[in-house]
Amino acid sequence: MNLLSITGRIVKRAFIATAVIALMSANNFSAFARNDIRQEKNKEQVATGRKACLPRPVKNVIVMIPDGCSLSTVSAARWYQWIQNPSKPDLNIDPFLCGTVRTNCSNAPIGDSAPTTSCYMTGFSSRTGFVSTYSPADGNNDIFPMDSAMAYQPLMTVLEASKLIYGKSTGLVFTCEFPHATPADCSAHSYDRSNYTNICSQMVHNHLDVVIGGGVSLLKNDQQDFLKANGYDVMLNDVNGLRNYSGKKIWSLFNARDMPFDLDRNPQTTPSLEEMTATAIKTLSKNKKGFFVMVEGSKVDWAAHANDPVGMMTDFLAFDRACKVALDFAKKDGNTAVVILPDHGNSGLSIGRASCPDYSRLTKDQLFDAVLHFTKTAGGMAEIIKEIDPLAARDSINKYTRIELTDEQMVILNHCSDYSKSPVPKEQRKGLSLGYQLARFMTEVTCFGFTTNGHTGEEVFLAAYHPKGDVPLGVYHNFEINDYLCKLLNLENQLPALTSKYFAKHHVVFNGMDYSSNADEVKDFPVLTVINGDKQLKVKANSNVVNLNGKDIQLQTVVVYVDKNKTFYLPENLTDLLK
Q: Hey, which residues does 351 pair with through a beta bridge?
């Protein structure tokens, strides 16, 4: 790309940005304008030397994320599959691999799921723990300059914008609990990913058409009632109901929190990610205006945290089968794009370990022999051990792994912190959790290695399908993935304006009016009360329902309250209700 073409693109984007400014309130736009120009310059710089991808818009977009999946996990899973089934040497995603993605936070090279996926969804980098929310500036630590005036600003996501602008159906599929970071990034806003109370409420009130995954215990009774009153089918631990579903709006949840690893899954009670994806696509595709759905292979990441190689491989293969469902639909439909990419790496898995003698000379059968005989993940085995007599634990572990634990290893196991049936008194149990310790025993009999139980900073793979072949090629920054998604959805340059319109600061929106809140007394669901003449508006945080003179009115988006700056972020047109 030469200097002239770069200059031309900057001028073109400046013209577009000028047009957008006219549609936005000056008080809310200034910070966005400064940041957007800075972000555009960054995009021009990183794109130099690589052909820009200008995809033609499509009707449907499917984003598929294997959480915490390093490229080494993909390689190991491919070998695992091929050795078990010689007729399948390749993964379903293999023909569509096209590049890599850099997944940093705003102020650090290594990110967790919250800021990394939220960057895909919003186009802005942020800090660890931030869910589709702009992070404070961090001086020289910021990888790209951040604007302190925008700190804690909720950011419009591509999922939310797809419904707002084009009336598309939206969905989430995952195997973690529903308010976990990645699904939350698509449909909620918080600077604290662990604030499930607020995130759950926002997701329930954010007009999602399809939600399938874990988290039965987190969906409160009043939230179920709200969903049912608004036309949703709410199904809890109902696998047959999901498999036979023919409606249009569904929340289908399984297990108290997360769903089991695929290797541990009982198909009589729990659907596969493949089945969940198929049901979501079938349901969402009934909307003639199209759909946006995010599918997450959530527990690839959880297995990586535990350093559980068989859990990582088998859950990735379950994700890969779900990718086939999406890709088959897209190829048949002719108006659907699929983007497949992890949010970050995890664990530093290596196929080969220095302490394993002559590991580089081992045949494929020798190298993978031990892991091929693991019939439960470490986490799945921990759940079994917790429920049986300690004297039977050794035989049970041998049954599922072929590992014969030594007396010394049994002592270690009995000191696991969560081993309630251990003969060792609770106050003396200071070891790892059962799942983590079992994963260590399992890894020791393989030639795999791990560098950490945490996230890692390497680039992740990128795979894509577009009906016209308009796929991104090369190394991308995470905010460029948002660019690509916006172009697919015909939302280019629209997210900042939508953020300003639907997440405006209350003191700007209601300037000159009489307003007050109980935020100092109420933590999770504070209410902003605005009075103008004979009209009284009550705006509840983390909800899309406002009350005007005793009558409930539903908004198109949720209201977010941020205690850090004591600000309600809400639609700027709420003043129309008070006229």
A: 448
- pLDDT per residue over 109-162, tens digit each? 999 999 999 999 999 999 999 999 999 999 999 999 999 999 999 999 999 999
Report how far residue 476's alpha carbon sits from residue 474's, in angstroms, rounded to the nearest whole number: 6
Ramachandran angles phi, psi of 133, nearest 5°? -140, 135
Instruction: Please name every residue paired with 461 in a beta bridge, in sequence order, or none if there are none.
Output: 100
Distance (Å, whole) CA 505 – CA 192: 19
Beta pairing, strands 169-177 & 535-540: unpaired
The number of residues in the chain equals 579
Intrachain domains 60-350+453-478+485-501 and 503-578 with the same fold: no
Q: Is 333 helix (H, G, I), strand (E, B) or coil?
A: helix
Given a contact cutoff of 8 angstroms between Cβ atoms, the answer to whether 201 and 241 are in contact is no
Q: Determine the 3-state secondary structure of 555 from DSSP.
A: coil
For 302-368, strand residue ranges (E) read 336-340, 345-346, 350-351
pLDDT digits (tens, 9 = 90+) for 391-407: 999 999 999 999 999 99
CATH class assigned to 503-578: alpha beta
CATH number corresponding to 60-350+453-478+485-501: 3.40.720.10
Write the CA distances from 347 to 81, 356, 436, integer angstroms: 21, 18, 13
Secondary structure letter of residue 290 according to DSSP:
-
